[in-house]
């Protein structure tokens, strides 16, 4: 029997995320921890399976090891399917031509054989940089109904920020009239989310043409979409009105995490109708000690809290000893905050130790910025890390 | 490293220990410690000792157990060869389903015959301990024992049926008593974990069928203390016998002790079913102290000296003290609970007040709305 998939997702997960500095020293941006339990890639992967898309190619390039290990066989997302499932697509050595992925379009082009195996009618292009819940099946339905060759998901952004995005201008016929990547003088506030659905045959044709064009930078936004518009192909817009956040900077990563707190959070990860799947920590329930004080926090399994935690997210196995204080911070898995230490307005990566009476960061209201401690850093007894400082990994602060 | 041992777990044999909690489920699937079921401890001990095949003997009410175990994946027991194998009652039309352990074993001879491991470890789900099965098998080999029985020194035994052992200095059991009077003196309680060679077990079962025996304790063990090489393996460290609902309550609360948690969870993993819950949320106004909180909880009230399972909600102004609150229980606003055990999916409406005491915790059964 000739089997095929109606829609295959291609998830671009090769980005370095250089503006996350110490947090992406050893890992690709989609593997960055989020929400006390998750990693960024859990969101697009969960969106796929919740939307009924069970075939996902994950394109890796920058520091892929931890991401590959995390995805494994895809079982935590129910993506270990007999036909389909999740597949890691790394740059490879080919008989004639071998190269790293040159741009987003080239990454897909180099994996056309993967797509051909599933012979899809539609291809969904995703990026692994955003926090959002979206039903791609709705977008696919809209794509089919509109008769477009490509549909771009878009959100409205404040006009003054529009020049940071790819901006879509819609003509009178309801289709995109032009597409400007980071325009200086934006004509609309409709920003591309970097999520595209292509009719597969068109994608194939334009990727081939793009590859043959020596002038092209091999990017969807800069090259492929403008080329399609020039040839008169129909590009439709799918307006998304939910929560969508690019977590590409230290500040936006911090903010997006904070959006999970509260009884009516800005963004709800505990939504029973749209589960966010992830690998689960193997740990007993968290223990909250007799002297602990917790105000507005999200705390994961295996934590041991004896001190004070305010407005913070603590991932699996974090220890906050008696008399220690954590305010307005994200503490990643396995980190330890010892007796009398204070952590303010910081992002502390995995397996960091903040020794007794040390101070990390400054209170948020001082506006000194977010302090960042990379993996395995040890902040010595009584040592001080100033607000806004970014410390790389495996380091000892005395 | 793999050891040549197959596991057999009796999921139901102590169901009468906890008549309330095991009314709708087997002992094996009784919730424990915030996110576990009793069987998780026995299974994890086996998996962590390198056992890759575990037959689970079930009799009735095992739907929740099947749901919990799934493919066995979460214990790393979804295997091509072996893994988790459920063993429901085997009987033809003329036989009634079995009632004793020995009859249960008779029903799984097919399973035992088809395996090729040298040894069998048989365990119940009425106790919680960290146990190195590989070490017990090593002991069994060293002693050239016929049966090695694991024991723990206890001063109080809540069960109506139990076995006390009197091993000599070499570990050889010279005296085995069923339901002796304890008089408050410490005794060596057999903790319902034993090791023997697969061949010995198969022969013993065959022999029992021939002679029409029905009780493993009376007909096999007690009668043959002199002739069989029975050895006692002393379990040091923490052991929690779940013989009564009081035991269940008091031992659960011992998990609030750091040393107990370190021993049970510190040096190795305890596996359980994965549920993909979000981390727990502590909202403004929440006050939590000396408690274990599992994932997916939402706490707005006060929680003291309690264990909250996954997905529990505690509303504003409510006070939960000395309680065990099982999965997805919803506690409304201004509720007061003291020494209460709520089973799964209980709803406690606003302003209700319930209290038990340590010796007799108030139990609210599954799915009730108060």
Layout of SSEs?
The complex is a heterodimer of chains A (398) and B (370).
Chain A: E1 7-12, E2 33-34, E3 38-39, H1 42-50, E4 55-59, H2 65-71, E5 85-89, H3 104-109, H4 112-118, E6 122-127, E7 130-132, H5 136-146, E8 150-156, E9 166-170, E10 176-181, E11 190-199, H6 200-212, H7 220-230, E12 235-239, E13 244-246, H8 250-258, E14 286-288, E15 293-299, E16 304-305, E17 308-314, E18 319-320, E19 325-327, E20 330-331, E21 336-337, E22 342-344, E23 346-348, E24 353-354, E25 359-360, E26 371-373, E27 378-379, E28 384-385, E29 390-391, E30 396-397
Parallel strand pairs in A: 1-4, 1-6, 4-5, 8-12, 14-16, 15-17, 16-18, 17-19, 17-20, 18-21, 19-22, 20-23, 21-24, 22-25, 23-26, 24-27, 25-28, 26-29, 27-30
Antiparallel strand pairs in A: 2-3, 6-11, 7-13, 8-11, 9-10
Chain B: E1 5-10, E2 31-32, E3 36-37, H1 38-48, E4 53-57, H2 63-69, E5 83-87, H3 101-106, H4 109-114, E6 119-124, E7 127-129, H5 133-142, E8 147-154, E9 163-167, E10 173-178, E11 187-197, H6 198-211, H7 216-221, E12 230-234, E13 239-241, H8 245-254, H9 258-266, E14 280-282, E15 287-289, E16 291-293, E17 298-299, E18 302-304, E19 307-308, E20 313-314, E21 319-321, E22 324-325, E23 330-331, E24 336-338, E25 340-342, E26 347-348, E27 353-355, E28 362-364
Parallel strand pairs in B: 1-4, 1-6, 4-5, 8-12, 14-17, 15-18, 16-19, 17-20, 18-21, 19-22, 20-23, 21-24, 22-25, 23-26, 24-27, 25-28
Antiparallel strand pairs in B: 2-3, 6-11, 7-13, 8-11, 9-10, 9-11
Name the poorly predicted regions of chain A.
none
- Principal-axis shape of chain A equals elongated
- Structural class by sheet pairing and helices of chain A: alpha/beta
Assembly category: heterodimer
* Distance from first to last alpha carbon of chain B: 51 Å
Q: Let me know the average pLDDT of chain A.
A: 94
Specify the biggest β-sheet of chain A. Answer: 10 strands, parallel
Poorly predicted ranges of chain B: none
Q: Helix content range of the residues of chain B, please? A: 10-25%
Tally of structural domains of chain B: 2
Q: What is the mean pLDDT of chain B?
A: 93
Name given to the CATH homologous superfamily of the largest domain in chain B: Spore Coat Polysaccharide Biosynthesis Protein SpsA, Chain A
Number of contiguous helices of chain B: 9
Q: Tell me which protein chains meet in the greatest interface and how many residues each side has.
A: A-B, 38 and 40 residues
Radius of gyration of chain B: 21 Å
Q: What can be said about the biggest beta sheet of chain B?
A: 9 strands, mixed
Instruction: Give the strand content of chain B.
Output: 25-35%
């Amino acid at each position: 029997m000739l089997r095929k998939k109606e829609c295959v997702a291609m998830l671009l997960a090769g980005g370095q995320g250089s503006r996350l500095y110490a947090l992406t020293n050893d890992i690709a941006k989609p593997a960055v921890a989020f929400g006390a339990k998750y990693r960024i890639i859990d969101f697009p992967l969960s969106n796929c399976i919740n939307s009924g898309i069970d075939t996902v190619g994950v394109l890796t390039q920058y520091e892929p090891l931890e991401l590959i290990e995390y995805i494994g066989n895809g079982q935590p997302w129910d993506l270990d399917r007999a036909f389909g499932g999740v597949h890691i697509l790394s740059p490879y050595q080919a008989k004639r031509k071998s190269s790293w992925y040159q741009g987003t379009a080239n990454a897909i082009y180099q994996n056309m054989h993967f797509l051909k195996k599933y012979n899809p009618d539609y291809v969904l292009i995703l990026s692994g940089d955003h926090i959002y819940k979206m039903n791609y099946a709705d977008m696919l339905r809209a794509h089919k109904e509109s008769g477009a060759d490509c549909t771009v998901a878009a959100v409205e952004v404040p006009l003054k920020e529009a020049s940071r995005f790819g901006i879509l201008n819609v003509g009178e016929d309801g289709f995109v009239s032009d597409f400007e990547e980071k325009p200086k003088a934006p004509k609309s506030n409709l920003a591309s989310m970097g999520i595209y659905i292509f009719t597969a045959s068109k994608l194939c044709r334009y990727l081939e043409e793009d590859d043959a064009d020596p002038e092209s930078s091999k990017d969807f936004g800069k090259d492929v979409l403008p080329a399609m518009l020039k040839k008169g192909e129909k590009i439709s817009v799918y307006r998304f009105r939910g929560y969508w956040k690019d977590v590409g900077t230290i500040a936006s990563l911090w903010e997006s995490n904070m959006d999970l707190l509260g009884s009516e959070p800005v963004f709800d990860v505990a939504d029973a109708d749209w589960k966010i799947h992830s690998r689960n920590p193997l740990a007993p329930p968290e223990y909250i000690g007799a002297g602990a004080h917790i105000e507005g926090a999200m705390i994961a399994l295996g934590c041991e809290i004896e001190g004070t935690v305010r407005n913070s997210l603590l991932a699996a196995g974090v220890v906050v000893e008696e008399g220690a204080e954590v305010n307005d911070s994200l503490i990643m898995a396995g980190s330890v905050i010892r007796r009398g230490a204070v952590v303010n307005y910081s992002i502390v990566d995995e397996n960091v130790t903040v020794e007794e009476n040390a101070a990390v960061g400054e209170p948020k209201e001082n506006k000194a910025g977010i302090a960042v401690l990379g993996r395995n850093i040890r902040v010595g007894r009584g040592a001080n890390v100033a607000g806004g400082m970014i410390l790389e990994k495996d380091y000892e602060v005395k | 490293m793999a050891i040549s041992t197959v596991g057999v777990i009796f999921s139901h044999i102590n169901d009468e220990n906890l008549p309330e909690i095991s009314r709708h489920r087997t002992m094996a699937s009784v919730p424990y410690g915030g996110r576990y079921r009793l069987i998780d401890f026995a299974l994890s001990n086996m998996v962590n000792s390198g056992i890759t095949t575990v037959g689970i003997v079930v009799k009735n009410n095992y739907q929740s157990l099947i749901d919990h175990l799934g493919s066995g994946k979460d214990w790393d027991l979804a295997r091509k060869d072996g893994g988790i194998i459920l063993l429901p009652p085997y009987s033809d039309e003329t036989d009634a389903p079995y009632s004793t352990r020995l009859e249960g074993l008779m029903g799984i001879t097919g399973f035992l015959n088809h395996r090729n491991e040298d040894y069998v470890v048989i365990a119940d789900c009425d106790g919680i301990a960290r146990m190195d099965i590989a070490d017990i098998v090593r002991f069994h080999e060293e002693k050239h024992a016929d049966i090695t029985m694991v024991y723990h020194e206890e001063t109080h035994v809540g069960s109506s049926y139990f076995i006390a052992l009197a091993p000599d200095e070499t570990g050889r059991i010279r005296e085995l008593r069923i339901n002796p009077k304890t008089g408050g003196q410490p005794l060596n309680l057999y903790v319902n974990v034993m090791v023997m060679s697969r061949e010995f077990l198969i022969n013993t079962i065959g022999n029992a069928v021939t002679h029409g025996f029905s009780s493993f304790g009376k007909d096999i063990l007690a009668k043959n203390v002199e002739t069989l090489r029975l050895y006692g393996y002393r379990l040091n460290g923490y052991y929690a016998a779940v013989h009564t609902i009081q035991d269940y309550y008091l031992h659960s609360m011992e998990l609030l002790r750091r040393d107990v948690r370190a021993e049970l969870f510190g040096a190795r993993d305890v596996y359980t079913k994965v549920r993909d819950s979000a981390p727990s949320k502590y909202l403004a106004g929440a006050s939590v102290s000396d408690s274990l909180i599992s994932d997916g909880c939402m706490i707005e009230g006060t929680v003291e000296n309690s264990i909250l399972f996954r997905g529990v909600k505690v509303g504003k102004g409510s006070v939960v003290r000395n309680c065990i609150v099982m999965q997805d229980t919803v506690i409304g606003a201004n509720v007061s609970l003291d020494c209460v055990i709520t089973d799964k999916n209980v709803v406690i409406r606003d302003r209700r007040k319930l209290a038990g005491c340590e010796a007799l915790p108030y139990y609210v059964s599954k799915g009730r709305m108060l």
